[in-house]
Amino acid sequence: MFDYTVITNNIGLLWQGLLMTLYFTVITIAAGMLIGLLVGLIQLSTFKPLVILGQIYVEFFRNIPLLVTLLWVYYAFPIFAGINVTKFWAGFIGLSCYVGSFYAEILRAGVQSVDPGQTDAATAIGMSYGQRMRRIILPQAFRKMIPPLAGQSIIQMKNTTLLSMITVPDLLYQASYISSFTYRPMEVYTAVGVIFLIILIPLTLLSRKLEKSGSLK
Amino acid sequence: MSISEPSAATDKGGKPVLRLDGICLKFGDKRVLNGIDLSVVEGEVVVLIGASGSGKTSLLRCINLLNVPTSGSIVIDDETLFDRQADGKGAQIPAQEVNRIRSKTGMVFQQFNLFPHMTALDNVMEGPVVVKKEPKEQARQKALQLLDLMGLAQHVQKHPRQLSGGQQQRVAIARAMAMQPKVMLFDEPTSALDPELVGEVMKAMVELARSGMTMVIVTHELGFAFEVADRVVFLDQGLVAEQGPPAKVLLHPEHPRLKTFVGRFHESADLLRPFLEAREAEKVC
């Protein structure tokens, strides 16, 4: 009933898909963190217009379904802005902006959860805003941010499957391709699920460990 | 109401290290400080007292601009840290300058506010290394010396959570002292401590005062004020209501509110009297 040969015969395609998925996961998380840091700090500034700008960004990308964002960047951007984006760039931009909005919120919440007395103490010894952030606030905030960051990053890896909708050949795209000529979607999609489990469970455990060692210091 | 002749109120006639003029502070519609003048000379120990809500902590936090006054001027060691007149005019001091002048004050907080991700030693070294760009080795030596002075030689490698409240507060004093401040600001430094730990922190502060450090202290420990203060300043409704030598202000208060304030302290001291007398009697036997 369960035909393993469907998977073993097409392992090469799945491997290619997996590499694509991992590639997009890594680069969009990296870019998303940069965006999150920037937008998060903007939201934490005392300059009202900047704060509002940051909020608009976050609410925009957080509340539009990722699929819509991806389709919009890929199909509508060229039409309205006259800029031609490849599917790779569209996927990269859409996914990074999306996860960036979540990271920004995690950073903001993390920084705001640090005792204001820490800012007082750092200010009182003459530290500038940058020194305060770098040396005192962010190291403490980051420890509290590890669990939500890990959670969001795991979601991000799963979200890369939406890339298949704009025909980026990721794991899910390859799976649907394989099932289109083997007519065995059950085996193929089960395999995809197992691959995600194998990769993400160790990462979850790692984040738990990081969280513990972080709180020890 | 406020008295603006600082030297008249104290017998230490040195050069002023700190000068506040017409400090007003509002939080929204709430007026917290209503024009405070205060001048502190070198080596002077000034204790701010007052009921809660009288603005003493707010005033202390204004001195290093943790609270930014609505108007007034602040001069520390002949350098203007803040200057804004009631009509909004005044000198604009760039943030970099503010940070530099601000580091001439050291502050000790009620809740210690040590950096929890650093050891005691790193806490003390942080300011000199990051702000003053001192060489690490030099800062380390100085920090070790200060911690030793605070009686913490065995605890330099511990993190704050491994230390008692009293030890944490002494690390905090060392951290503030490491910046070689011209004036030390203490914001109710013993209020968050267990009663048996109050003594060790006060002892450190007394030693600091004896070494000639200029200090401004907000505290409820009137006995301590009596012992070390050169001048006691009583704040009431955001104004200096009365000030003078501790013997005068604490024993012969004039202002009606100060009378009630000090009276309450005497009442609670009276409760201790039988206990103290019994102890004295035992000593004699």
Question: Care to describe what's here?
Answer:
Chain A is mainly alpha-helical and about 220 residues long. Chain A is about 85% helix and about 0% strand. A 6-stranded mixed beta sheet of chain B has the order 6-7-8-3-9-10, with helices on both faces. In chain B, α3 (about 120-130) packs parallel to α5. The interface between A and B is medium-sized, with 20 and 28 residues. Chain A: It is found in: Cell inner membrane; Cell membrane. Chain A: InterPro entries: AA_ABC_transptr_permease_3TM (IPR010065), ArtM/GltK/GlnP/TcyL/YhdX-like (IPR043429), MetI-like (IPR000515), MetI-like_sf (IPR035906). Chain A: It comes from Mesorhizobium helmanticense.
Sequence stretches where pLDDT stays below 50 over 5 or more residues of chain B: 1-9
Write the CATH fold name of chain A: MetI-like fold
Number of helices of chain B: 9
Overall pLDDT of chain A: 91
Oligomeric form: heterodimer
What structural category characterises the helix and strand content of chain B? alpha/beta
- What is the share of helical residues of chain A? over 70%
Order of helices and strands of chain A: HHHHHHHHH
Indicate the mean pLDDT of chain B.
Answer: 90
> In percent, how much strand structure appears in the residues of chain B?
15-25%
Radius of gyration of chain B: 20 Å
CATH homologous superfamily (4th level) name of chain A? MetI-like
**What's the CATH C level of chain A?**
Mainly Alpha
Biggest β-sheet strands, sense, barrel of chain A: none
InterPro entries (chain B): AAA+_ATPase (IPR003593), ABC_ATPase_HisP-typ (IPR030679), ABC_transporter-like_ATP-bd (IPR003439), ABC_transporter-like_CS (IPR017871), MetN_ABC_transporter-like (IPR050086), P-loop_NTPase (IPR027417)
Family (chain B): Belongs to the ABC transporter superfamily.
Keywords (chain B): ATP-binding, Cell membrane, Membrane, Nucleotide-binding, Transport
Membrane topology (chain B): Peripheral membrane protein
